Amino acid sequence: MEVNNPKIEVDINKIISNTEEIVNLAGNEGIEITGVTKVACADLKVAKAMLAGGVKGLADSRIENLKYLQENLDLEDIQLMMLRISMLSEVNKVVKYADISLNSEVKVIKALNEAAIKFGKKHKVILMVDVGDRREGVMPDKLFSTVKEILDLSNIKLIGLGTNLACFGGVLPSDRNMELLVDLQDKINQKFGLNLNYISGGNSSSLPRLKKVGLPEAISQLRVGETILLGSNVINREPFPNTYQDAFLLAAEIIELKDKPAQPEGKRGQNAFGEENLINKTGIRQRAILGIGRQDIAIEGLTPIDEKIEVEGGSSDHLIVDVTKSNRDLKVGDVLKFKLNYGALLRAMTSQYVTTTYL
Ligand SMILES: *Cc1c(COP(=O)(O)O)cnc(C)c1O
C-alpha cells in the first residue's frame, strides 16, 4: 500500500482535552476563549476539536482560511474573527467571511464600512491598542480621535478594545499593560457615553499569568492557538500544566541509512542556505536521511520522540539525523517521529508536500 510520507499525525482527543483545560481555566475567571486555527492552517478536524472543547469562536489571520471554515463548518452561533489587521484590498472578503475583525487603521475601517453597506451587513470591529509590544495597534494618545471617527460609521459596530503581546517586542502581559487597556476602555465609555464591555486581552502569552495571578476582571476574551494545539507555556516553552505536547507528530521516512564519517571531507564553504555548519562530532556515525526538508519544516523546531536520535541539519528536501545511539534496528523505509514547535508546525501544515492524518 502507498503511504504518504511525510505526514502530520493529529491526535484529535488530545486537542479536545487541551481545549477543555484552557476553556475551563479561563471560564473560572469569566473569560471566553476564541480558538486560533492559523497554526493548523484552519484544518477542519482541528477546528471542530476546538469547538468540541468549548471555544466560543474561531479566529484566523488569513481570510482564505476563514472562508474555508465558513463554507465547510456548520457554524450557527459561532463567530469568525479575522486576526490580522485587514488589508485595504481585502475588505470585501473580510466583511463576507468574518463576523469580527481586529483593526488599527481608520482608513481600513472606513473601507470595511463601505463594504458592509454594500453587503447590507453590520461588521464588528475590535480596535487594537499598542500597549507596548509595538506590533499592531493605535497608540494610546491617539485613541480618542480614532474612536470618534469609527463611531461615525453606520455599518461598523465597535465592540471593544484589544491588544496583542509577546509577538514582536516579546513584551509580556503585566498589571500595568492590562490595566492600561481597561482604563482606556473606561475612559472611552465615559467620553463617548458608550458601554463597551468587551476586551480582547491577548493570546497564549496571557495564560500563564491568568493561571498564576488572574487577569483584571474587565478582560473578557483571549485568542488562543499555541497553548491549545501544542500544550506549551509560550513564555518559556515549558509544558503548560495539564496539557498534551504531542497532539501533533511529524512522521518522516528514512531514504538513506549509512555509516559515514561525522566530519565532511574537502575544502568547505557555505551550505545552500548561506550558513557554515560547525560539526564537532568525530568518528564514524550511523546517519539517516529523511525525505523531508526545509521547504516543509523548520528543522530547528523538531524534537525526535526517540531521545537517542539527534537532528544534525537539513537542506531544502533532506533532513539528516544521527541515529548511532538509537536502540531501534532501523532500516530504509522506516518512519521516525518528531514533536514540533510553533514554527515547525506552522510550516508543516502549510506545506503541500506534508499530508495530515488523524488518530
Ligand atoms: C496568532 C495570533 C493569536 C494567537 O496566538 P497564539 O500565541 O497562537 O495563542 C492571537 N492574536 C493575534 C492577533 C494573532 O495574530
Written account of the structure:
This protein has helices at residues 12-27, 44-52, 63-72, 91-97, 106-119, 143-151, 175-192, 207-212, 226-230, 342-350; strands spanning 7-10, 32-36, 57-60, 79-82, 100-103, 123-128, 156-162, 198-200, 221-224, 232-233, 238-239, 248-261, 284-290, 302-304, 310-314, 319-322, 335-340, 355-358. By secondary structure, it is an alpha/beta fold. The strands form three sheets. Strands 1, 12, 13, 14, 15, 16, 17 and 18 form an eight-stranded mixed β-sheet that branches. It has an eight-stranded parallel β-sheet with strand order 8-7-6-5-4-3-2-9. It has a two-stranded antiparallel ribbon with strand order 10-11. It binds pyridoxal-5'-phosphate. Pyridoxal-5'-phosphate binds at residues 36, 38-39, 61, 83, 102, 164, 203-204, 223-226, 234.
Radius of gyration: 23 Å
Q: Structural class, judged by helices and strands?
A: alpha/beta
Summarize the main sheet: 8 strands, mixed
Order of helices and strands: EHEHEHEHEHEHEHEHEHEEEEEEEEHE
Question: What small molecules are bound in this structure?
Answer: pyridoxal-5'-phosphate
Total count of strands: 18
